């Protein structure tokens, strides 16, 4: 069943709740991408967020929105990495215990990052759905709360604070390029942008390999796709057959979706390193990659998000030295 969309008021409330607990990240003009696109291109440096991704916004908002008794019992979640890391940090900051369940496909660097935040970790199965079943079991057996990575109002509202910052810092923006996986980021960002600037086009960027939201939009309902290894590992995973919010919000608020090949994503990571001086993970680089691939048209300034920087540094080094990771 579809719920009412997350509102601008909820996003403004999220901003008040997480103020001082997350960073307001900078926007940089990219001369190289500007040259390539023929219009100014700005990058929001959200990979410099605490915990290395925007996920801290939604996680912090959702943890603080729990009632204190529930929070005290602890929080469990399934994650491809960045949500788990953010949730571990947000829980600790709020004095709560976090247990993070994840699949075997999650890279080692991400698992270590989560362990360092003090969370308990459980590795279960070869897909996010199998890890989710362990979360369901813990909720049932121990009565703990869960905060899902995207399909949750408080998570979406928290991610939406990023959209508010884009509107305020880049009032001239005509097009926003936003990573698209489960759709929590783009639902929040599009809700914020369209409330303030309905004329701005919001374009979802994702990979060709296992693009669950794209397949679902084409089918007109949430569908499952096979989960495949990709350089943009933070964009992997399904949207949930029982999706309540992000499918409908993405369908109604997002103007277009662009799909990228693995080689295009690799080019994006290399670009961010060599031309921008930024270490960015595959998912974080897809906005830049879409411009470099010539897959985005805009009549005016473009804003994109470097959404995360959590990449295994050995994989990163191999990639920027010309390898395939
Ligand atoms: C989670 C994530 C995304 C995608 O966000 P969704 O809300 O699942 O669409 C993009 N980039 C990074 C770095 C992420 O961690």
TrEMBL record:
Q: Which organism is it from?
A: Sulfitobacter alexandrii
**Cytoplasm found in the keyword field:** no
Note the CDD domains from the entry.
Answer: Thr-dehyd
Necessary cofactors:
pyridoxal 5'-phosphate
Q: Recall the taxonomic lineage recorded for the source organism.
A: Bacteria, Pseudomonadati, Pseudomonadota, Alphaproteobacteria, Rhodobacterales
Name of this chain's protein: Hydroxyectoine utilization dehydratase EutB
Q: Name one GO biological process term.
A: L-threonine catabolic process
Claim: Lyase is one of the keywords in the record: yes
Keywords assigned: Lyase, Pyridoxal phosphate
Kindly list the GO molecular function terms attached to this UniProt entry: L-serine ammonia-lyase activity; pyridoxal phosphate binding; threonine deaminase activity
> Which residues are in the Tryptophan synthase beta chain-like PALP domain?
21-308
